[in-house]
Specification:
This protein has 2 helices and no strands. With 72 residues, the chain is mostly helical. The radius of gyration is 18 Å and the shape is elongated.
Length: 72
């Protein structure tokens, strides 16, 4: 489980860094879509970690339930 959590955390970090880099590039290029990318980055900063936490929590619960069923 620890390895899966590390992989999920790494994917989350990569996604967030990609969003931030895209936002910075759009700001430098004075793109008309800069504000949209900024809002998406702010949204992703909150939503991605929450979704990853929910995924790991549900995975743990399913794994725990499967182990209990094997014992019984």
């Amino acid at each position: 489980m620890k390895k899966i959590k590390q992989i999920i955390a790494l994917l989350g970090v990569i996604l967030l860094i990609g969003m931030y880099c895209t936002t910075i590039i759009m700001a430098i290029l004075s793109s008309k879509y800069f504000f949209d990318f900024l809002m998406a980055s702010i949204y992703a900063t909150v939503v991605i970690p929450v979704l990853l936490w929910i995924y790991t929590f549900v995975y743990q619960q399913i794994k725990k339930r499967n182990e209990e069923n094997r014992i019984n």
